[in-house]
TrEMBL record:
Protein name in the entry: beta-N-acetylhexosaminidase
Ranges for domain Glycoside hydrolase family 20 catalytic: 196-365
Classification via Pfam families: Glyco_hydro_20
One term under GO cellular component: membrane
Length: 450
């Protein structure tokens, strides 16, 4: 199954590379979907629902039924309308061109009933997104010969229900007739909820640049399988593709170039476009700017922004695990202002993310921590955050932050999520301190502390 999933992503993603820059979004999605396996081809719902019973009947969905589906969608919430339209756009003509009409061509009420059990609140707005562990994503889906019922109390739950419905559909072409859409295995009774509230994929856009259409295709693919987080590892040792308005020299000097010399960067408009595209599919983008280590690219802009100056000399490996080394030099006022500007801009542009990821891996304490830890905490003020975004209280929405904690002598890819913020941006971690910080997380998840 995992191989099937990987093959699916490769096929779906490759379609995006064939789309010209000026192609409309609708044409882009249709070209991408042409590479998809037919709905129903997988024969199973992925991921496996919590409870799923099925029968032996096959229900045919005509235009009137899908029109009813679109109507129930758009009359209830923005989420249903967008997601319902997305479902229809994946289907072949004439189904993809269904418009919302409450009655059939002759004015008679359609017999096939499509309904939502709950009227959904508008939960997909910017700035209102809860952390994934606090979202209600459970749903119920019932399909019989005469009705389709969706029991979803939130827009995120509805997105999951629509994703399941799409996987149950089967496109069939009868001999000499038009294409029809069926739902085999009826009646279906599904009650589902996520086993893991955070279901994400990390995309490294620093070591490899991916154009916006490619990322949008990836988002659409992930949404179909109920992935709710796309973790964008935006910057790293190799490049800085993120546009920062106050410091244009970052992308001017530190970004990749294409074959004709154009900068391969993400403008603020690009980021907001991706955030909106994901929002309408029930997904959020989690931004990561790797620091305080993995930052030697900054030395290309201003060497004094880093300790060790980004040198490639292996003898300076005490300043960083991965050569060329380099750690944010937050004793430098200019470097400090860069960090503040970047974090403030991330908060503004990634409007649906309740978290900010700071990487935090592989710093070497001797580079800056022993001498500047106290001053750094005073300057950045992570527990009050007034210097970052002008707000008091919690440094990130909802009192949450991503605090990646890793021991200095280990390269293990471990990320701990805490509801409270720790002063951990620049600090020397020794083994005893590391185990101390692990303790509350282990207790929270009922794990042994040994």
């Amino acid at each position: 199954m995992w191989c099937m999933w990987c093959r699916y992503l490769r096929q779906h993603a490759s379609a995006a590379h064939q789309v010209a820059d000026g192609t409309s979004e609708l044409l882009h999605e249709r070209k991408a979907s042409a590479k998809l396996p037919r709905p129903g081809k997988l024969q199973v719902v992925m991921p496996k629902p919590g409870s799923h019973s099925s029968g032996d009947d096959t229900v045919t969905l005509g235009l009137s039924q899908l029109r009813e589906l679109a109507c129930a969608a758009r009359a209830s919430a923005e989420a249903w309308g967008i997601i319902g339209a997305q479902l229809l756009s994946r289907l072949p003509k004439p189904y993809s061109e269904v418009t919302c009409r409450r009655h059939g061509p002759k004015g008679k009420r359609n017999k096939f009933k499509v309904a939502l059990v709950h009227k959904l609140p508008e939960l997909l707005g910017h700035g209102s997104w809860k952390p994934s562990r606090e979202r209600n994503e459970s749903y119920g889906l019932s399909i019989s010969s005469n009705e389709l019922l969706v029991d979803a109390k939130t827009s995120w739950a509805l997105a999951n229900a629509i994703a399941t419905l799409y996987q149950l559909l089967e496109v069939r072409t009868l001999s000499g007739q038009d294409t029809i859409i069926t739902v085999p295995g009826c009646p279906h009774e599904i009650i589902d909820f996520p086993a893991f509230p955070h279901r994400g994929l990390l995309l490294d856009t620093s070591r490899t640049y991916y154009p916006v259409p490619w990322i949008k295709t990836l988002i659409a693919s992930l949404a179909e399988f109920k992935i709710n987080i796309l973790h964008l590892h935006v910057t790293d040792t190799t490049s800085w593709p993120l546009e920062v308005e106050e410091f244009p020299e970052l992308t001017e000097r530190l970004s990749y170039r294409d074959n004709i010399g154009e900068k391969q960067i993400f403008s603020r408009a690009d980021i907001r476009e991706l955030v909106e595209y994901a929002r309408l599919r029930g997904m959020s983008l989690l931004p990561e700017v790797d620091g305080p280590a993995h930052a030697p690219a900054l030395a290309t802009g201003k060497p004094l922004w880093l300790t060790a100056g980004g040198t490639s000399n292996y003898s300076t490996q005490s300043f960083g695990v991965e050569p060329p080394p380099g750690v944010w030099n937050l004793s430098n006022d200019s470097a400090l202002q860069v960090v503040k500007s970047v974090l403030t801009q991330l908060q503004e542009d990634f409007s649906t993310s309740p978290f900010l990821h700071l990487g935090g891996d592989e710093p070497v304490a001797g580079a800056v921590c022993d001498t500047l830890a106290d001053e750094t905490q005073k300057e950045l003020c992570l527990t009050q955050c007034t210097t970052l975004n002008g707000r008091t209280g919690s440094p990130w929405r909802g009192g949450c932050a991503v605090v990646p904690l890793r021991p200095a002598d280990s390269c293990a890819n471990v990320t701990w999520w805490f509801p409270e913020v720790l002063n951990a941006l620049v600090q020397k971690w020794t083994s005893p301190q590391w185990h101390q910080l692990q303790q509350p997380c282990r207790q929270q998840h009922g794990q042994a502390s040994g």
